[in-house]
Specification:
The chain has 218 residues and is mainly beta. It has two helices and 14 strands. Helices cover 8% and strands 31% of the residues.
Length: 218
């Protein structure tokens, strides 16, 4: 998958107080278009149903915030901290998350299209019942995160860590894990989720236990 290139404005408006700016647009139910937010820290604030397009967030922090049912189109998040924030029911299209800290982020029931997550920490995150189309994980730490009952279409992963993930009822057909760390996933019994997935011989030796087979390593 080629790197997603959001269609950002050439001369975005620099916003120094995103909370106040978003409040005005939310009250009028209008989309926020063409802004740039930098080096601002926001905690425990609600932005449910906010719509943001053609914008950039860099070195920006929004921890423990609520973005439920929000909409992000052509948005770049670069070196942002979104840890423990809730994006459940949100919509993402042509977005990039680059060098972001997203520990414990709630992305349940989101729709994500043509979006990349690059060099970011997604440990302990929740992507349950998500619908992903043309999504790429590149250098992602997905340790102990959950992606159950999700639908993946043209999902790719490179140089990423998948350790102790919950993939229950998420079909992984065509997903290539060979260039990733893939250990101890939670799946059905037998693990039908793995049908059609691509793994290497070392991963196969560890995953074979999911079928109730014990490997004699003597």
């Amino acid at each position: 998958m080629t790197t997603v290139r959001p269609q950002a404005f050439k001369n975005p408006i620099l916003i120094t107080d995103f909370t106040a700016h978003a409040k005005d647009f939310l009250s009028q139910e209008l989309p926020i278009i063409g802004i740039e937010c930098r080096e601002e820290q926001i905690d425990n604030t609600e932005f449910s149903s906010v719509e943001i397009r053609n914008s950039i967030f860099a070195h920006w922090s929004a921890r423990d915030c609520i973005f439920e049912k929000a909409c992000f189109i052509d948005v770049i998040f670069r070196s942002c901290d979104l840890s423990n924030s809730k994006f459940s029911g949100a919509y993402f299209e042509r977005c990039r998350f680059v060098s972001c800290k997203c520990i414990g982020i709630d992305m349940n029931e989101t729709i994500v299209k043509k979006t990349t997550f690059e060099q970011s920490n997604l440990q302990y995150s929740f992507f349950n019942r998500t619908k992903m189309t043309d999504v790429a994980f590149e250098h992602i730490d997905f340790t102990e995160s959950s992606m159950s009952e999700s639908k993946l279409k043209r999902f790719s992963a490179t140089n990423s860590i998948f350790v102790k993930n919950n993939f229950f009822r998420t079909m992984l057909a065509t997903v290539d894990f060979t260039d990733n760390e893939f250990i101890a996933p939670t799946m059905s019994s037998p693990p039908v989720e793995l049908k059609g997935a691509i793994i290497n011989v070392f991963q196969a030796a560890d995953l074979i236990g999911l079928w109730g087979v014990t490997v004699n390593r003597d």
